[in-house]
Amino acid sequence: MNLTLAAKDGRNQPRDEGLAESPLAVRGLTVSYGEKPAVFSVDATFRVGAMTAIIGPNGAGKSTLLKAALGIVRPLSGQVTCYGKPLAKQRGRIAYVPQRASVDWDFPTRVLDVVLMGLYRRLGLLRRVTTRQMQTALACLDRVGMSDFADRQIGQLSGGQQQRVFLARALAQGADLYLLDEPFAGVDAATEKAIIAVLKELKAQGKTVVAVHHDLSTVPEYFDRVFLINTSRIAEGTVEEAFTEAHLHEAYGGRLATAQMSVAG
Ligand code: ADP
Ligand code: MG
């Protein structure tokens, strides 16, 4: 009985099963900023049409994993494929919303222009924005409840409002894969609800969502799958398979008390 189950849930399958269809897969990914690796020999196969949470303690390498997968930081070793092909050929299919704290708007930029940036890959930097593209950008702002703010300066918005605008920019790209780094960090409850609603809409359209997530209490409600990391991969699977006390203990170690409280609460 157990053997049959183990075979069915994929643990006994060949290592590269699903690689060709996976919107994002990494193999043997190691990234180091100094002597100690931030991400060590990680395999991950994110599933198409799923919402996956990347979880793990502070400094576990969650952001680094995303950045290396996107080619923003260069790995020491490892392969990244996007829909079975090298990343370079698939960039247009990926939208990335970085951790908000890492974005610093030191020059005045209009909200609408931030969203239009999502269209530049198609637009070409120097071409004029068409009416249709303007409408697309406005529609994306509308989806995140920010159309009234189109003419405002991004720097004047609250953290939650800025995060919605970054999500609107990602939507404007019309990507198939959405990578978000702590989209709910420092946002108000209304924004969190608005963002999760949009992400669930994307999933309903068959898009793939991968988000670094720090609030363990909302993992089962928001996500289908979990990728648990602490420099190395701890677990990957459905919430039921991967989001277990044993795996959390392995990932969070001494910090488990806090983690468990969040799970319970
Ligand atoms: P997480 O997102 O899980 O909190 P990070 O990927 O940001 O973790 O960081 C993983 C490790 O790499 C940490 O020890 C962090 O201090 C280090 N690190 C991250 N970015 C840099 C950087 N640009 N230069 C040097 N070390 C970094
Ligand atoms: Mg991070």
From TrEMBL:
Keywords carried by this UniProt record: ATP-binding, Hydrolase, Ion transport, Nucleotide-binding, Transport, Zinc, Zinc transport
InterPro entries in alphabetical order: AAA+_ATPase, ABC_transporter-like_ATP-bd, ABC_transporter-like_CS, Metal_Ion_Import_ABC, P-loop_NTPase
A GO molecular-function annotation: ATP hydrolysis activity
UniProt keyword RNA-binding, yes or no: no
SUPFAM superfamilies documented for this protein: P-loop containing nucleoside triphosphate hydrolases
ABC transporter domain residues: 24-256
EC number(s) on file: 3.6.3.-
Pfam family, one: ABC_tran
GO biological-process terms attached to the record: zinc ion transport
Coiled coil: none
Family of this protein: Belongs to the ABC transporter superfamily.
Protein name per UniProt: Manganese ABC transporter ATP-binding protein
Species of the source: Roseovarius indicus
